[in-house]
Amino acid sequence: MRLDYLTIFPDYLAPLRLSLPGKAVESGLLDLHVHDLRQWTRDRHHTTDDTPYGGGAGMVMKPEPFGEAFDELLGPVPEEVAQQPSRRATVVFTTPSGEPMTQRLAEELATRERIVFACGRYEGIDQRVIDHAREIAEVREISLGDYVLNGGEVAALAITEAVVRLLPGFMGNAASIVEESHSESGLLEHPVYTKPREWRGREVPEVLLSGDHGRIAAWRHDQSVRRTAERRPDLLAPSVLDDGGEIVRAVPADAAELLVLQRACWAQEALANDSLAIPALHESYDDVRTALAEWDTYVVRRAGRLVAAVRGRLDGTAWDIGRMMVAPDLQGTGLGRRLLAHIQAVAPAGASSYVLFTGVRSERNIRLYKRAGFRPRVELPAPPGAIVLTKPRRG
After folding, report:
1. Residue 292: which of 267, 259, 260 has the closest Cα?
2. In what helix (H) or strand (E) does residue 92 lie, and over which residues does it extend?
3. Fewer CB within 10 A of the terminal residue: the chain, N end or C end?
4. Do the strands 90-100 and 138-143 form a parallel or antiparallel pair, or are they unpaired?
5. What is the rounded average pLDDT of the residues 329-346?
6. CB < 8 Å & 24+ apart, contacts of 295-298
């Protein structure tokens, strides 16, 4: 793989010669070229930026140096290559307005034969440079995250590390890549331990000392799921339902439909329990919107219609489950059971038990919860006309 870097600060990229990337260069696995963009300027001050059209603060990187750099480094595109985009070089523009850098993107870029990094500075690179690059190469605009750096060099270094370590022969132990965070499983990596067995009063988990590889694998997977749910719940793949639908995280725009569904479901609860003193019946639209910021809420849609929802939040060490609801016309289809399983699966690592409540006369709900392992706890305080059910978290 050949990697080129266009920058006005070549020394910023000196770390490319260190550690494993440096060894890969020495072995011929990587071919690295760092270019000073100023060598393609024409004025005696080697100017690479100018004021923006339309006014505004900051400076914009000029198109001419980049254009000439592309002419020299990439040259004219042969006709046969132009007809096969996969054979073109890839130009990466590091920019906070680009697509997020992910492990999947790193895996994709690792299949390229040549990547040219265009490192922007100031307010960015003249848009015409990017438009021109699309005519002669594959273009990817990539961001490290939702923040702004002084320039694109740091981002180019990070993207390079993520990509080249996936090249065959780069890592001494290729198997070490499989269990990393954001690997094929999509989960964060489990906690890791080494010698000594005890350190400052903290012991290595017993399961890792058992020699039982099945138990160890199960423990590591469980820890990965818990860590992902706690730190990056957005990475958890939505639960796929039997009909191909998904259980996905709610967004503020769902509030109005959640309120309608809530009133439909708790009207049934009011009839079953002969009481209108049910908070869900009296909440407003603003109440529902506020709750979306306080609870992890998940919804199901069918043909664009919001038909089911559930939510959870951590209360001490208990994962508090609430507002589990399924549209009246879909009750009895198994959707409630799937929602209950999902909300338990996404509980954070700090949860050691699950807790919920329902109406004392809500027999269908109570049967569902009992089948899922919940047990009524009449000794625990509950809202008027309700009963609390709990379940320990296993593992």
Report:
1. 259
2. strand 90-100
3. C
4. parallel
5. 90
6. 295/322, 295/323, 296/233, 296/249, 296/346, 297/249, 297/250, 297/254, 297/258, 297/323, 298/247, 298/248, 298/249, 298/250, 298/339, 298/342, 298/343, 298/346
Give 115-131 pLDDT, tens digit per residue: 999 999 999 999 999 99
CA 119 and chain centroid, separation: 25
Give this prediction's pTM: 0.58
Place of tokens 């890791």: 192
Task: Over range 331-336, report the average pLDDT.
Answer: 88
H or E element in which residue 94 lies: strand 90-100
Whether the CB-CB separation of 107 and 166 falls below 8 Å is answered with yes
Q: Which residue is it, tokens 């625990």?
A: 380
Cβ pair 342, 250 in contact under 8 A:
no
Residue 255: helix, strand or coil by DSSP? helix
User: Which residues, 6 or more positions from 209, have their beta carbon under 8 angstroms from its beta carbon?
Assistant: 197
Q: How many residues does the chain have?
A: 395
The residue to which tokens 């040549």 are assigned: 114
* 87: its two tokens: 């054979």
The answer to whether 29 touches 1, Cβ cutoff 8 Å, is yes
Sequence letter at residue 33: H
